[in-house]
Amino acid sequence: MCEVSLANVTTPLTLDAAPLGTPLVLMGTHPDSTVARRLASLGLRRGARVSLTQKLTTGGRIVSVGGGRVAIDARVLRGLAAEVAP
Amino acid sequence: MSATRQDDRSLRLSTALPHGGAPSVRAACHGPVGEGAGAGAPIVALAGSPNVGKSTLFNALTGLRATTGNWPGTTVDVGRGVWRFRSGDRVCDCASCDGDCAADAAREFTLVDLPGAYSLDPLSPDEQLTRTLLIDGPVGERPDAVVVAVDAAHLARSLFLVCQLRETTHRVIVALTMTDLARKAGVEVDSYALAEALGCPVVVVDPRRRTGLDNLTRAVRETLARVAPAPRTIGPAADDLAREDERFSWVEAAADAGTAESGDDRVSMSDRIDRYATHPVLGPLLFLAVMWVVFQITTTVAAPMQDALDQLFAGPLADVTRALLGAVGLGGTWVEGLLVDGLIAGVGMLLTFVPLMALMFVLLAVLEDSGYMARAAVVTDRLMRRLGLPGKAFLPLVVGFGCNVPAISATRIMGDVRQRILVSLLVPFTSCTARLTVYVMLGTVFFGPAAGTAVFAMYLASILAVVGVGLVLRTTLWRTMGAEPLVIELPPYQLPTARLTAAVTWMRLAGFLRTASGIIVATVCAVWLLQSVPAQSGYGFGEAPVENSVYGVAAQAIAPAFEPAGFGQWQTASALVVGFVAKEAVISSWAQTYAVAEPDEGEDPGDFGAAVTQAFEQSSGGHPLPAVAAFLWFLMAYTPCVATLAAQTREIGRRWMLFGVAIGLVVAWTGAVAVFQIGRLFW
């Protein structure tokens, strides 16, 4: 797992590899339907604008969405595809 | 023992059901908090996402004291109270309304506080309870109206529940909370535009400062007077995903209509604090430092107040009581024994800990209200994951450091049955404040100025026990249990209000005092009675030395079991037996035993600390410090109290409860023996 430069990124990346502070748009829902529902209830669903604000232990991140902050572990982040917001 | 066989039992909900049927707001009349209004009063349910200030609003409207805290999942039970119109409330459109103008309208409502739920599609038992009470029950059993608390700072997230409720026939009123935080985040909410978009009234309230409550009362009253609105019209959807997309689109449209400005991209003060509070390295260190400071402040600041109270009870109060009893001819009788050596010595000793408990409760309330506890759950996620538990399992465990009983109920925030059973078995190892009284007493006697550090060490030992037992259970009984992913909402930090801190502190302190005046007095009387009944012939009632009483003889039979741990004196063993009922009773019964026992030559009968020191010196063969450490370990690890056992029985069933008792005794005894036997090699 490593962060990538987004200077010329056009293909989707997963949230665990996205850098902090970059505005992103979620491209789909989490493959686990239960997790997907929990994320959706917190505003993390397809089309949501998000950004990562803080690294956590074991690769997790704090995700900023809809003015709120959600702490998410790396395993869940790997299931969330995103692209840089236009 | 199979975890799956417990599924139904562990999903049992504690809502009282007088008729024995399915849960409903009309049947749920006897929740953990309060009673409702009269039989004819409208029933209003209070719903909302976790951590939107719902319980604070409930407390503000009813004057009751439901548990509050700035973290998701504080409410897991149903609370119920009377929502009365206050004198001077403007609850209708009259020019000079005092609440009495509409004689035919309701003067009070029954308000039912439901567990937090993001939606009506439950993922945990507490969310299931909310759905059952709002949707699954018969129409006649549903509430007359539903007030949904909505966080203005996170509008779109909070409105999904409103959206689903608007698809039903419920009368819905939105209570818009946290507008002050929203404003700070650059979000301005237009309540009128939002009401129009949602198709239901929207009222701005600030339950922490108690503003806007009369407007909410008025809105509910007006809504109840109207026919229920038609449900939101929804088109056909191809599948559940399409249905959810349609709902989210509706929510977003409503949020956009009601929000003048969004502060999504701002770096907030909370973000800046979180750079340190949730940092992979600094975060855990900060957590330990915060906890250490809490225990240091608690022990050092409370000490002089404790001394003053101790002198009051042991000196003037006991002397005055003796003098009064002597004046009426009862001096030296069993009445004096019961009052002076029993109630004043026992209850008085316990009451000296009130300043300490109050300080601890204030500090914990400040931490909870500030929003830090949710960060603590994130920081400890890595540790919890080792046990196969999600980070949010930390929340019931934190509650356990206050009191184990609500902590057992709080395990309902977890979706997986096996995780709930595991956490319910681990909660008794979290060191509740009742145990703190014994730590402080022994810490002060044996460790002097280092008492604060000794107490802190006991909390670390408690965490060690949780982790150790968790790992053993995880690698034996639940090898296949997968960890639930970490997805936890982090509320913004906020300055704790004096009112809320005082209310939470008083609620907990009152609970402690209730225990003191109930269980403790009963235990003190029972102990006194057993100490007065002779076990050998030749003595009358109250005449036998304690070691020859029923109490003493029974304790002497148990005491040898503790000899390998260095505290095999019968007085010490008897305190632990009493502690099985409630840890608050340990100090009182102990003090009572030494007050009644014949003092050794040269010993001040009132000097409890000296008596305890001598007891540990004798029982440990000259190694009192390892013996005290072993005793403290035993006290920390064995069954906390009968109330916790009752809560465990309710949540996970009798067999798992008994299993937990056995684990506690095994861990307590083996750990205590190990601490003493190893410790005496060095001390």
Structure, briefly:
Chain A has 86 residues and is α+β, with helices and mostly antiparallel strands.
Characterization of the model:
The complex is a heterodimer of chains A (86) and B (683). Chain A is of the alpha+beta class and 86 residues long. Chain A has one domain: SH3 type barrels (Roll), CATH 2.30.30. Helix content of chain A is 16%, strand content 30%. Chain A is globular, with a radius of gyration of 11 Å. The model of chain A has no long low-confidence stretch (mean pLDDT 84). Chain B is of the alpha/beta class and 683 residues long. Chain B folds into two domains: 258 residues, Rossmann fold, CATH 3.40.50.300; 376 residues, no CATH class. Chain B has 27 helices and nine strands. In chain B, the strands form two sheets. Chain B has a six-stranded mixed sheet with strand order 2-3-1-4-5-7, with helices on both faces. In chain B, strands 6-8 form a two-stranded antiparallel ribbon. In chain B, β4, α4 and β5 form a beta-alpha-beta unit. In chain B, α10 runs antiparallel to α12 and α24 packs across α25. The radius of gyration of chain B is 28 Å and the shape is elongated. Classes of the chains: A alpha+beta (86), B alpha/beta (683). The interface between A and B is large, with 34 and 46 residues.
